[in-house]
Design a protein that fits this description.
Layout lengths: L2 E7 L8 E7 L2 E7 L12 H4 L1 H5 L9 E3 L5 E3 L2 H19 L4 E5 L9 H12 L4 E3 L1 H4 L1 H10 L1 E2 L11 E5 L16 H10 L3 E5 L12 E3 L6 H14 L5 H7 E2 L1 H8 L4 H8 L3 H13 L3 E5 L1 H4 L4 H14 L26 E2 L5 E5 L6 E3 L8 H6 L8 E5 L3 H4 L3 H10 L2 E5 L12 E3 L9 E2 L1 H5 L13 E2 L1 E2 L14 H12 L4 E4 L2 E2 L2 E2 L4 E4 L8 H8 L7 H6 L4 E2 L17 E2 L4
Parallel strand pairs: 6-7, 6-17, 9-10, 9-13, 10-11, 12-28, 17-18, 18-19
Antiparallel strand pairs: 1-2, 2-3, 4-5, 4-19, 8-14, 15-16, 20-22, 21-27, 23-26, 24-25
Helix pairs in contact: 3-19, 4-19, 6-14, 8-11, 8-12, 8-14
Bound molecules: ligand MGD (2 copies), iron/sulfur cluster and molybdenum atom (MO).
Length: about 575
């Protein structure tokens, strides 16, 4: 038996931990954290260690399936699926136009990031803007709050350099990739506390993270906006703001002061059901600390007034100047993204809503995309522009979208539903075709996607110049007919005679760190995943070959410092908005 141990990257969540994979005759049999990888200290979580069980699961799909008239599924060749799907889409496009074809990207794209740009290119090529994703139901306020408040060119102060940290509705200690450091969150928290950091957790539940907090504000669910307004009220009343920072970088202080005036500690304590003393304690710890940050996650996102909660959290950061300052080591310096010179200055706010309305409820596309929460209604509403085709990549609408019955009714109504997934999910039951891709250990990958998270909110991604490349480590199951998610869309494009344009995004909305790159793909041949990785890493600060040579990953000694505010910069953060 041929056994090998190969370093790689776990892609089961956005921490992308370095791992060691034991492979026997092409099959992954064991995954552990990689003790030779710097910065992660051999860390892995149970989801990562379950990679072999996931890859070798007997229920894993090894061939595409087509639904039969009686509702059962039969095997079908992957080339034939692309032929039939392409023909059906062309027919629907001819009858109903581009808007009738929609796609939905779920959290599955996390494990194979080169697929989404191909899928996006394909949708642009057919002229449809019906590009839905899990981002608009996961933490849409992450996008809308930044659009309303503005963002910071150099990023937030990091957990690693902070002496206080407020976590709103997240549980980073058990490795969910939100709210705290990505590299071994438990150990990073322990180190931070040993040097005196005081963590404040705002969560109705006494979570693993809350148990380690200096202050746990165990609020009534859904009262985050009230509680955060209360913290701002106290910080303003006790003059704990960074006056100079606010004067140089923000507008709207008087309006914010007036808006939070009613939110006294006593009022907030009553509404949120937390002790007054704890509120005062939390506000004083945060306001008096030298460095720190507030981050929100799914708790406030799935709750009421989520946009306001996220917005107020950004206001707290700005009032206390919790953004990277001139001379600081750059929190997110880019390794596999292009070099840039971070500055201690805002990105200006921009309109949350664009003018492309949905047909239902008069909904607009917003900073987080077209609203997935209304996609079932959109599919169900008869008339011009009705969605007839849905291509679902790495998502599970039946369980993930609101209102399961309505979702099931909508999916049943589609003329064509294609589900790309490696298992028979609840959604796959409704599909006309189910197309399984190879799994992550069978594909090459890099950590670039984690770096680019900083474009989509605040305090996201690695707060260190860390990068790694992994080759494909395990073989696809013997006798399988799998097609990688990107290659599937490329195959559709070839059959439909479309020219695809790959885009390397370099920011979010108008906040672009460097110009986006557009590359017309050679449509005569399906690109390999490695070729797509090369494309995504064009102009990387550290060339991909160098990153490849450090097989256990590497923290690069880049010494990038935050530059002062550009005298030409006129952007200001908004402490109040309408
Ligand atoms: N009730 C309820 N609803 C929720 C949430 C909740 O907690 N409860 N959470 C919300 C949040 S935060 C999110 S992000 C969304 C998530 O919404 P979705 O992404 O729609 O749902 P998931 O269940 O994460 O589905 C991911 C699917 O991707 C598949 N997959 C994994 N890797 C790959 C791959 O490489 N390629 C392909 N093609 N498929 C792959 C998995 O098998 C799985 O079926 O749901 C939101 N909705
Ligand atoms: N095992 C596993 N890991 C995953 C995922 C998965 O599906 N499975 N999904 C990934 C994805 S897509 C995401 S988005 C992340 C999510 O990662 P997190 O955002 O850290 O998710 P949770 O651990 O559910 O933490 C949310 C917290 O919010 C609290 N909460 C509930 N209501 C409220 C409220 O009204 N206010 C406040 N302040 N808190 C509230 C809950 O008690 C809970 O502790 O996890 C990622 N990691
Ligand atoms: S934290 Fe995420 S990336 Fe790390 S081992 Fe767990 S699932 Fe994998
Ligand atoms: Mo999520």
């Amino acid at each position: 038996m041929a056994t090998s141990v190969t370093p790689g990257i776990c892609r089961n969540c956005l921490a992308y931990c370095p791992i060691l994979v034991t492979v026997e005759d092409g099959r992954a049999v064991k995954v552990t954290g990689d003790p030779q990888a710097p910065a992660f200290d051999g860390y892995s979580c149970p989801k990562g260690r379950a990679l072999p069980a996931q890859h070798n699961d007997p229920a894993r799909l090894k061939h595409p399936l087509q639904r039969q008239a009686d509702g059962s599924f039969a095997k079908i060749d992957s080339g034939l699926v692309m032929d039939q799907v392409a023909a059906k889409i062309q027919e629907v496009l001819a009858r109903h136009g581009p808007r009738s074809v929609a796609m939905y990207r779920g959290s599955g794209q996390v494990s194979h990031p080169s697929s989404a740009p191909i899928m996006g290119a394909w949708l642009r090529a057919i002229g449809s803007r019906m590009n839905f994703s899990a981002a608009s139901i996961d933490k849409p306020a992450e996008y809308t709050s930044v659009a309303m408040h503005g963002n910071w060119h150099a990023g937030m102060q990091t957990f690693e350099t902070s002496d206080t940290w407020i976590v709103v509705g997240a549980n980073p200690v058990i490795a969910k990739s939100n709210g705290g450091p990505l590299n071994n969150p438990g150990m990073r928290l322990k180190e931070a506390q040993e040097r005196g950091m005081k963590m404040i957790v705002i969560d109705p539940r006494r979570t693993e993270t809350a148990r380690r907090a200096a202050v746990h504000l165990q609020l009534r669910p859904g009262t985050d906006a009230v509680l955060l307004a209360g913290l701002i009220h106290i910080i303003l009343a006790e003059d704990l703001t960074d006056v100079e920072f606010v004067r140089e970088n923000a507008v709207g202080l008087a309006e914010l002061r007036a808006a939070v005036a009613p939110y006294t500690a006593e009022f907030v304590a009553r509404v949120a059901d937390v002790p007054v003393a704890q509120l005062l304690d939390a506000a004083r710890i945060f306001g008096r600390a030298r460095r720190g940050g507030v981050v929100c996650s799914t708790g406030p996102s799935f709750s009421t007034h989520s946009n306001l909660s996220y917005y107020l959290a950004l206001c707290l950061n700005t009032l206390c100047g919790r953004w990277a300052r001139s001379g600081d080591t750059a929190p997110h310096p880019n390794v596999l993204l292009p070099a840039f010179a971070p500055r201690a200055q805002p990105y200006a706010p921009y309109p949350v809503l664009s003018d492309r309305a949905m047909r239902v409820f008069g909904l607009m596309e917003n900073a987080s995309g077209v609203p997935t929460a209304a996609l079932a209604d959109e599919i169900l509403l008869e008339g011009e522009g009705q969605i007839k085709v849905l291509l679902c990549l790495g998502g599970n609408p039946v369980l993930a979208w609101p209102d399961q019955k309505k979702t099931e009714a909508a999916l049943s109504k589609l003329e064509l539903l294609v589900v790309l997934d490696y298992r028979m999910s609840a959604t796959a039951d409704y599909a006309h075709y189910v197309v399984p891709p190879p799994m992550s250990l069978e594909l090459p990958g890099t950590t670039q996607m984690v770096e680019s998270l900083k474009y989509y909110g605040v305090s996201r991604g690695y707060a260190m110049p860390w990068a790694q490349y992994t080759p494909a480590i395990a073989s696809v199951p013997e006798g399988s007919d799998l097609i990688d998610d990107g290659a599937f869309f490329f195959g559709l494009a070839q059959r439909m005679g479309l020219q695809l344009e790959w885009i390397n995004p370099r920011g979010q909305g108008p906040n672009q760190e460097s110009p986006a790159q557009t590359v017309a793909l050679d449509m005569t041949r399906v690109p390999t995943v490695d070729e797509l990785i090369d494309l995504a890493c064009t102009d990387a600060r550290v060339p991909l070959d160098v990153v490849k040579s450090h097989v256990h990953g590497h923290v690069y000694d880049l010494d990038v410092r935050v530059l002062p505010r550009d005298p030409q910069c006129s952007a200001m953060l908004q402490l109040a908005t309408r």
